[in-house]
Amino acid sequence: MRLLVIEDDPADVELIRRYTADIGWDVELDHYCSFLSMLEGIKTTHYDVVISDYLLGGATGFEVIEALKMLGIESPVILMTGDGNERLAVAALQAGAVEYINKEDLEPHLLQQVILRAVERGKNMLESCSSEADSRRGCGRRAPE
Known about the structure:
There is one protein chain. With 145 residues, this protein is of the alpha/beta class. The protein has a single domain (2-138), classed as Response regulator (Rossmann fold), CATH 3.40.50.2300. It has six helices and five strands. The longest helix has 24 residues, at 108-131. It is globular, with a radius of gyration of 14 Å.
């Protein structure tokens, strides 16, 4: 599984790396510590799942989601934050994230469940888009080239 983590705290990235190893997954994890470095790196690479922090210094996870849409990248996005509440979770889902997780709740089994649900929802989105007669109006995302 290829996992992209956009997170400005190296400790959180290491935690995700350790948790995916703890559950026995063979994960290729790429990490970008800022919105701009993510933009440069993700243009030509496909990821099974993107995990983005909500607060990234000069940008937010919502901007990450919007940038992915504009680039036509269809990888499912999990928005992660340490400062979250129910309104932020709802806003994240409305913005296009397929999952939301609070850093305070993060543990190996929960991370596994969230990633598996995100992958499944990403597949469902692709199937839905491919069955739409007008994919531009119905989906707005395309696979990276």
